[in-house]
Each structure stands twice: as C-alpha cells, then as structure tokens.
Amino acid sequence: MRYKLLGKSGLRVSEICLGTMTFGEEWGWGANKEESRNIFDDFADAGGNFIDTANRYTEGTSEKYIGEFLSGERESYVVASKYSLYNKRENVNAGGNHRKNMMQSVDGSLKRLDTDYLDILWLHAWDFMTPVDEVMRGLDDLVRAGKVLYLGVSDTPAWIVSQANTLAELRGWTSFIGLQIEYNLVQRTAERDLIPMAKSFGMTVTPWAPLAGGVLTGKYLADSEADGRVSATSERRNERNTRIAEEVVAIARELDVSPATIAVRWTMQKNFQSIPIIGARKLSQLQDSLRCLRLELPEMYMERLDEVSKIELGFPHDFLSSDGLKEVIFGGTYDMIDNHRKL
Alpha helix locations (H) across 114-232? Predict the structure, then answer.
C-alpha cells in the first residue's frame, strides 16, 4: 500500500479507502461482526489506514464496530464519517444539511465511534434547502472546536461545491478538500463537471461503487434476473453496460487477474487524484479488490476501457472543444500555446 496526500492538506491516506456500509446485518445483506473484523484486519494488514463510514450505515452499527476495532489504535487511522441522512424518522430536524442536524449528527457519530474527533467529516448529500453559508460556517465551527479535522463533500452538484469552497476561501473558513462521487466504468458522467471542478480546486476524488454494484465483476453476464439486494443494480444492467462488462472480463482474462481488479485499478489510473472506496461483505471480496495494488494497467488496456465506456460530455464541453470555435477564438494559434490548465 502506498499513501497519498488528501487534497490540499498534508494528511496521508492509503491509496485505497475501506468502505464500511457492509459492517452490520441490519439492512439484510451486510457482514456480521466477526466477518467485519476480518475485513478490517486484512485491510489494515495490507497497510490501509483510510476508513469510511456514515451516521446511518447499518443503523449506526458500522460506526460502533469501527469504534471497537480501533480500540487502542485510534491515532493510526484516518476515520471519515458523514452527516446529512436522518438520525430519526419523522423528526423534521433530524436530517439535512442545516446546523442543528450537523451538530447533533456529529455528536452521535463521535459517541458510536468512541472517539473525540473525526479526521474527515463528509457532507453526505445536498438537501437543496440549507444556505451554503450556513453549511460552511457550521462546518468551520466544528473544525475550530476540534471535533473535525478536515472536510469533504459527497453527492452534491459541482456549482454548489464551487460556491461553497469559494465562499470558504473568501471568508477564511475551512474548505472541502475531498469529493466523494459515484464513478466507475459504467458511470462516467462526473467527468462533465464534478471531476474538472475537483482538479481545479485541488480536491481528491474518492469514487464509490467502483464495481458498479457488481456489474463490472461480470457476474451478471449470464444472468438476466435482477439482484434484489441492490436497488440500483437493475438500472445499471443494460446493453451499453453489458458491453463494458464484457470488455473488463476479456482484459482480466488476458492479464490473468479478476474483473474486479481491473475495474478498481482503472479508477486509480485516471488523470486526477483518485482513491477508490472498496466495500465488501466477505473477506474474499476485499482480497480480490486489493489485488489491484499489485497491478499497473498498460496504456493500451486503459485506452480500450476508456473507449468502450466513453460518454458524450454534451454542451458546453463539446461546443467549446470544437475546431470551429477554437478557430474563431484563437485565430489559428491554439496549437502554438502550451496550456498547463487544460483539463
């Protein structure tokens, strides 16, 4: 395992992040405590120090397990949790991005994790109700109080993240240094705005679902029935995604590795700082994904994967990159300019 600096900070995190939404059986498909411990220990033995959880994962069991697993070793790990999802149903102020939920959610996470602070607090999802300045001022207060060290944002439109970081920098508040998004070979729409924005602000991207709910492992290629455990799985299974999965499987055979190894490694070798979040219900699944640490995909395979999974960026990206517009803007001088800002 190697380590990367998280965003603009000096924080060192492992090049793979362990996702723990599977820690606990309350949702009907997770790992029991013993298997969760095995997964955690194997990740740690591989050199992993970056742990991702959230206030609602398995109704709080995920955080409780992590708190127990970290006993006596808290300082060796970078623990990230999230707020935004409700803590109590039918309580109108027990969910969302606002300050009241922010404070009570973080306090709850700290108790379950049995720790005094979070290394990283992610805003889990944008609620389209809370003003940006309320969010950023509240998060900065948590940092100043020592309850949180760094901030990240997940599942939020690029224009909101841009506004938030610009406002924070203007007012001297703590800004977001990490961006958590769904990103994999079947879901590349983040390349339109979210990823270029992250690069511009110097943010690390932590892709979730690098295996697209199992689609990229190839396990559904011979099975036309939907997997009821994951609601998004059936949406991911279509003609385009089948072609992508087939190419992943073909490359895996050529390189004598598993499709999961190929899919995870692809996210790590993109042209931005990417730390994929790997989850597992069984130890064998984690071990399979971790084999990506011993693989470097040659450029020819990256090109094959990029080609089979390519998307149209749409307006204004396609328009702005067209030869016609370059001509009327640059008057034939475009290729004479070394542009280090090109995304």
Answer: 132-144, 158-171, 194-201
